[in-house]
Amino acid sequence: MLLYYILSAIAGAIVALAAYIIIRKASLKGRRDAIIEKAELEAENIKQQKILQAKEKFIQLKSEHEDYVNSKNKQLADKENALRQKESQLGQLSGELGRKQHELDSAKGQVRSQMEKLERKQEECDKLLAQTNKQLETIAGMTAAEAKNMLVENLKAEARTEAQAYINDTMDDARLNAAKEAKRIVINTIQRTATETAIENAVTTFPIENDEIKGRIIGREGRNIRALEAATGVEIVVDDTPDAIMLSAFDPVRREVARLALHQLVIDGRIHPARIEEVVAKVSRQLEDEILETGKRTCIDLGIHGLNIELVKLIGRMKYRSSYGQNLLQHSREVANIAAIMASELGLNPKIAKRAGLLHDIGKVSDEDPDLPHALLGAKLAEQYKERPEIVNAIGSHHEEMEMTSTISPIVLVADAISGARPGARREVIESYIKRLKGMEDLAASYPGVTKSYAIQAGRELRVIVGAEQVSDDDAGRLSADIAQRIQDEMTYPGQVKITVIRETRSVAYAK
Predict the structure, then answer these.
(1) Who's near 225: CB < 8 A, 6+ residues apart?
(2) 200 pLDDT exceeds 70?
(3) Domain 431-504 sits in which CATH superfamily?
(4) Is the pTM higher than 0.70?
């Protein structure tokens, strides 16, 4: 019975479970159908919305396209109208060109007709001129070419005489107006510039107290002198001159190093090759410092500032250089002062003139590019150390080796000539001096009509005596100008040379 109940319960549970499953499936199917139906409705709505949006977008794009097409059509219509206008204008221009061409052809015909008439007239004139020339040749008794040459020669002589008279008048006026002012400026400049005249040479005398010191300087078998000569590059001459040793070298810096080294060695008393080399090296350094200090002191004395340190060193080295016996530093200071005074008198900048005058000879103390003329080398150095262009030009052109482009340049040239040409400033080797004077006399004697020529006033004046029969007064003026120009172009000389042409007539008779 219990088994029956259990089986009945199990069967009931199974029936109940099956009923639940069936009911559950029916419920789920109903919900699923509802969800599907809802989804289909939503999908249909979305589809309708997208269709509407697509239609609106299509309508918008169609409208924009139509606007774009209309715009392009309008532009094309405008271009067509413009082209039609251009075609119309070109048609009008073509018509005008046709008319102009017709007028030009007509004018050419008229010109050809006129040219033909002129050619016929020219032929008639040539015939008449030939007949006239023949008649004139018959009357005058000479050909047309001979008459033409005679006329040309007469006109040349007349023109030469008139030109020389005009030149003389112009030169006289220039002398009257310029001589006073030029002399005033130069004399005033020289008077306001006071410098001493320093004479340098190639030998320095070193005094010694006695022959014992001379022997110590010579050393055993001359080893001390050889060491000193090798260290300084100076030739040491020991002869029978009492209480003196000669130091010979063309480089004043080397002579000064040797002199100072000998002085210290004699005072110290220790004289041997090692000590000599040590003292020479020390003195060389001291001299370099002294050179720099000399350059700085010179710039301060002249009121020149802002120079490159290398230029200051070159200025200091000028103290130990000479030109024709004239100390180069004193010469440069003198040129600087003269140039500044002359620039002030002429209304120019005296500071620039003074700076250019001080630096004008720096090429002489530089060891760079020795084959280059010192004026051009100085200009190169000034340009290298950033000096102003007018100063560079004044340095390079003070011997006329560079074209003058600045108003300061001729002032520096004149100041250099004044400093070097004044009496006592320089000395020349007697052979070159005589050769220069003889060259001037020979140059003057090479001209026809010159009977004698004399160089006087230490070569500052050349007197030329000409024959009165061969040279006229006008020719004498031209001759002096020609000789002056040749001397200026072909010869080298300090200052200026005055050429005086003397023409005189002498009548001689004898009483018997």
Answers:
(1) 217, 218, 219, 236, 238
(2) no
(3) Cation efflux protein, cytoplasmic domain (3.30.70.1350)
(4) no
